[in-house]
Amino acid sequence: MNIKQQIETLRAQLRAHNYQYYVLDQPSISDFEFDMLLKQLQELEVKHPEFYDPNSPTVRVGGEVTKNFKTVAHTHRMYSLDNSYDRQDLLDWQARIVKNISEEVFSFTCELKYDGASINLTYEEGQLIRAVTRGDGIQGDEVTANIRTIKSIPLSLNGEYPSSMELRGEIILPLEGFHKMNQQRISEGEEPYMNPRNTASGSLKLQDSTLVAERPLDCLIYGIASEDMSIENQIGFLQKAKQWGFKIPDTAKECKTIEEVFDFVDYWDQARHELPYETDGVVIKVNSFAHQEELGYTSKAPRWAIAYKFKAEQKSTILESISYQVGRTGAITPVANLKPVLLAGTVVKRASVHNEDQIKKLDLRIGDSVFVEKGGEIIPKIVGVDLSKRSDSSTLVEFITQCPECHTPLTKQEGDAKHYCPNTYGCPPQITGRIEHFISRKAMDIDGIGAETVQLLFQAGLISTYADLYTLRVEDVMGLDRMAEKSATNMIAGIEASKQKPFEKVLFALGIRYVGETVAEKLAMAFKTIDALAAASLEELIAVDEIGERIAKSVIEFFEDLGNTMIVERLKTYGLQLALSEEKLKSQSDILKGKVFVVSGVFSIYSRDELKSLIKDNGAKVSSSISSKTDYLVAGDNMGPSKRKKAESLGVSIISEADFQEMIQ
Ligand code: AMP
Ligand code: ZN
Predict the structure, then answer these.
(1) Atom of ligand 1 at shortest distance to CA of 118?
(2) Are strands 596-600 and 632-635 parallel, antiparallel or unpaired?
(3) Paired sense of beta strands 71-73 and 139-141, if any
(4) H/E element holding 653?
(5) 114 in ligand 1 pocket by Cβ < 6 Å?
């Protein structure tokens, strides 16, 4: 087999496995085997850029960064949908259809209304070439690099398909993945995301497609627009799209009468709570494409389709008490304890009430009968009080003035609705919260130690800061509950190994408020050592790309705290990486400072990613599209002629990768 065939075989294998896993949910090989195949393909592609394919399964991991999303006009407008709320609305709609089509007999297709962000996918000759958000329906943002990382979207299609078509679908974030993302965020001291819909649509506009690839997004297809179509109706289209490789929920149903539509709606109004993703209604469409054409569109929406909106389910129950949780940053979150009630398929016992203002706004009293609702949010919320049922025995909620864990008086700052426990070094949940964050996967990723062990070690008086981890010895921890010699040895080895974690990880692990993973990377690159960062002024911090005043202030506050600087000094003496490595430093310079580069085509000396990091390491910026701000276009093989033209017309210097190599030497 020659190289080309080898590459093609691997791509075909990976495509098939992807489809099995992400569309059919029936994995055909282990994750490990999959990764091995992917790695093999990646290596071949790097060595043989002449076989570059923008739709290779390797693009699924992301890598491309888009600074400014290009606005693109939709070839076929993306309409919104008219809404209906009861049977009469649906009967009226049916009557209008009967009046406006030539045939008497017609049927409907009912689909669920998936709650996410709509996307328009353009395929030419079975290849995904572009993905654009709905925007205002006439034009949207091109987000192709991000969309390519969503594994249930086929990059090249199976079987027979129109040579040119647009498919419409909804990008959703299934509930399980959403919960996991939030657990992670909470463990990092960040506010959890509000709901899956906003998180899904926010994901499409992330600049770094690698981050999109890490999110468990999914795409469900519901529509097509094409000039050359042999497909006759919606239900037939859904079947076809399934064969092409798209994910099509098998909940769609053809209904012969409006009564069948009612049954569908009634059934799913309940059953939707068991689905792995959120829906907010049913979309009813006239099945035949010929009929659809006859009916046409109003200025906003098709006449041949209508959305039926489910009502968010509400229940009334008793507010029994309010308890208070303390986060790793000391933030206090009140939680309502409710008399258990069945809501949207689950028993609800607790509801979130964000802060004191919220309690006042709702005028909550203990013993009140309150309405709880599960909308887009996962945690149900209290939407109001049933004043007609308020009894004399209900009592006002007195927001706590002391920390429930350490009894320190709480503080509250102007402009922040939250209360905080200021006892940073003495409040148990704050202490263990910081250590748990430090060891977590995205931070120091220490093997052999988890949240439970942290509690154990803390209670035994062995640790009270993350720096203490580095003083632990096997014999100290062996006597602890359920801690055998082997696990103790593993734990100490894991802690020892973490001393090699790169500076940016350590910086993230410190748990400075608002300094997430990416911010930590940016700061590490910009300041290079912890001492330089600690000495940086507000102005110097803000001058770094993507660092705003909020983050800058928080960094300064962190290093002004003597307790923090002492811990950092200790980490230094234990040998943690508190500066960029020699290797990283060597590749850093600012000879290209202030310049903007665009990289296009296929390269042979470097991979695209290498090229981009070299540009950044030398102080320049990488942009995804050519504009008047671009200084250099690094042109590789197979660069589109339109790019070259654009660069020429804007007077951008076009250079080869060899030229670039010379520039940085
Ligand atoms: P609206 O945003 O309320 O005007 O509703 C229109 C949107 O519903 C479309 O842009 C789609 O993104 C979304 N939608 C979700 N599921 C479906 C479906 N099965 N058929 C058509 N549109 C859908
Ligand atoms: Zn406290």
Answers:
(1) 12
(2) parallel
(3) antiparallel
(4) strand 653-655
(5) yes
Instruction: State the distance from the centre of ligand 1 to the C-alpha of 300, rounded, in angstroms.
Output: 13
Measured in whole angstroms, how far is the alpha carbon of residue 590 from the centre of its chain? 33
pLDDT digits (tens, 9 = 90+) for 428-476: 999 999 999 999 988 999 988 988 899 999 999 999 999 999 999 999 8
Closest to 280 measured CA to CA, from 250, 254, 311: 311
Q: Is 205 a catalytic residue?
A: no
The residue assigned the tokens 């006892």 is 423
Residue 307 beta carbon below 6 angstroms from any ligand 1 atom: yes
Residue 548: C-alpha distances to residues 207, 519, 538, 553, 555 (Å): 17, 10, 10, 9, 11
Phi, psi of 236 (to 5 degrees): -65, -40
Q: For residue 598, how far is its CA from the centre of ligand 2 (angstroms)? A: 51
Question: Does domain 83-309 sit in CATH 3.30.470.30?
Answer: yes
Residue range(s) of every CATH 1.10.150.20 domain in the chain: 428-500, 503-585
Model pLDDT for residues 19-38, shown as the tens digit of each residue: 999 988 888 888 889 989 99
Q: Hey, whose CA ends up nearest to atom 16 of ligand 1?
A: 113
User: Which residue among 4, 47, 99, 113 is the active-site one?
Assistant: 113
For ligand 1, atom 2, the nearest C-alpha belongs to 80
Cα(82)–Cα(301) distance, integer angstroms: 6
Residues of the chain with CATH 3.30.470.30: 83-309
Specify the amino acid at residue 432: T
Helix, strand and coil in the chain, % to nearest 5:
40, 20, 40
Q: How far apart are CA 187 and CA 433, in angstroms?
A: 8
What is the fold, at CATH topology level, of the domain defined by 428-500? DNA polymerase; domain 1 (1.10.150)
Radius of gyration of the chain (CA): 29
Query: What CATH number has the domain spanning 314-396?
Result: 2.40.50.140
pLDDT digits (tens, 9 = 90+) for 495-541: 999 999 999 999 999 999 889 887 898 899 889 999 999 999 999 99
Residue type, 229: M
The protein residue whose alpha carbon is closest to atom 7 in ligand 1 is 80
Q: Identify the residue whose tokens are 């960094």.
A: 555
Q: Does the CB atom of residue 134 touch ligand 1 within 6 A?
A: yes
Phi/psi for 123 (5° steps) reads -115, 130
CATH number of 503-585: 1.10.150.20
**Binding site membership of 252 for ligand 1 (Cβ less than 6 Å):** no
Phi/psi for 180 (5° steps) reads -60, -45
